[in-house]
Amino acid sequence: MKFHDTEHHPFGNTTMTPKHMIPKLTFLAIMVILTLAITPLWYPFCSYHSSSLLKMKHKYKNHIHDDDDNDALAQNLPSTYVEKCDIFTGEWVPNPKAPYYTNNTCWAIHEHQNCMKYGRPDSEFIKWRWKPSDCELPIFNPFQFLEIVKGKSMAFVGDSVGRNQMQSMICLLSRVEWPIDVSYTSDEYFKRWKYPSYNFTMATFWTPHLVRTKEADPNGPSNTGLFNLYLDEYDEKWTTQVQEFDYIILDGGHWFYRPMVFYERKKVVGCHFCLLENVPDLTMFYGYRRAFRTAFKAINSLEDFKGTVFLRTFAPSHFENGIWNQGGNCLRTKPFRSNETRLDGTNLELYMIQLEEFRKAETEGRKKGLKFKLIDTTQAMLLRPDGHPSRYGHWPNENVTLYNDCVHWCLPGPIDTWSDFLLQMLKMEGMRSAIS
Question: pTM of the entire structure?
Fold first, then answer.
């Protein structure tokens, strides 16, 4: 058989003379040496688009390289783990190499999340990484990320936890480049940052209820305001701006705990804890579902938007010994194991609503060629009661009216892992594009 002869010919054919054999072996040896020498130099420029490598390895388990030099461009090569691996199910494991920035090296940390500056006594909460059950999740590589998003733009649409996420990413990217402020307004709720070397822009759009909202009473039943939510109306502060972006990261959750009055077709249909006569309490879940439905509808109705929509799922708070405005606090210093707690009650209901509305929007968006992706952070963040600022968002002697913060996340801290998730998803999407 010809194939058999070819495989064994150099050593098995005794009629071959050394005169014929040596040049061929020499040629093969030279080619091997050149391949080994050139491949490592060429790889960073190929990045995740190297389809030949991907086709060869994409079915095999991920191989994680040593991360000693976390700033090396070629480190953390594209993951090749089985695509069916659920990167969102796993455990937090120690990571002595963290953090990858500090409050002294990053100016983007919001004061209320600057836990180390304001005296948090422990530091173990910054020394963990997320380990999926069936594969590995590489630590965020800022060089890879900026190469992938070169010439593109990303919008963070939602509440202050979404802004918290963007600030985390700015800090992680600071090892490569600092962005310049290209905001259209001085309003801190609508910021735009550009990375000139990569022509990459990030923006944050403040819309805590996702739909058009108006504050009806600054005090309200719980002294935190009463809001009118127009559940079938777009919030044009973001819906008229995001169609130019390549990626939209949508989030929302904690503002729906506050008192709300629900409007549909310009009429009151119910409320959540509004305590108004003759207005039925439809619960926060009604407003939450309708708000996400309208937000997704707004995106799917954009004529010129051709990008990818990421839903970053609800990140539970961790108040103990009281609710958020009645003395609740979060003083734990270690993550939970997955068998020590579970998603239930209100957290579970909000999470399921998000998934249900996401699937509906994904089906509709697919008809227009849009991509919807789920950054499913809920389980991972449920296990991190130790990652919140608590009372370490201001000086102890300051006269402030802030409650213990068990909603947002310290920086550096657990939500740096959200960038690990996002980069891995972008790489896998690049792999699928290269293979197809």
Answer: 0.81
Same domain, yes or no, for 279 and 403?
yes
For residue 201, count CB atoms less than 10 angstroms from its CB and return exposed for 0-12, middle for 13-18, buried for 19 or more.
Answer: buried
Active site residue 58: no
The number of folded domains in the chain is 2
Catalytic residue among 50, 160, 317, 390: 160
Domain that holds residue 21: 2-49
Would you call 419 a catalytic residue per the annotation?
no
Q: Are residues 197 and 336 in the same domain?
A: yes
> Tens digits of per-residue pLDDT, 121-163?
999 999 999 999 999 999 999 999 999 999 999 999 999 999 9
Pairing of strands 260-264, 247-250: unpaired
Residues 250 and 345 in one domain: yes
Active-site residue among 50, 209, 408, 416? 408
Catalytic-role residue among 235, 251, 405, 416:
405
- Whether residue 212 is found in the same domain as residue 238: yes
Q: If you search the block for the tokens 């995740």, which residue do you land on?
A: 48
160 a catalytic residue: yes
Let me know whether 285 and 207 are in one domain.
yes
Same domain, 86 and 25: no
Going by the DSSP 8-state scheme, the letter that residue 48 receives in this structure is G
CA 2 – CA 6 distance, rounded (Å)? 6
Q: What is the spatial distance between Cα 168 and Cα 153, in angstroms, rounded to a whole number?
A: 17
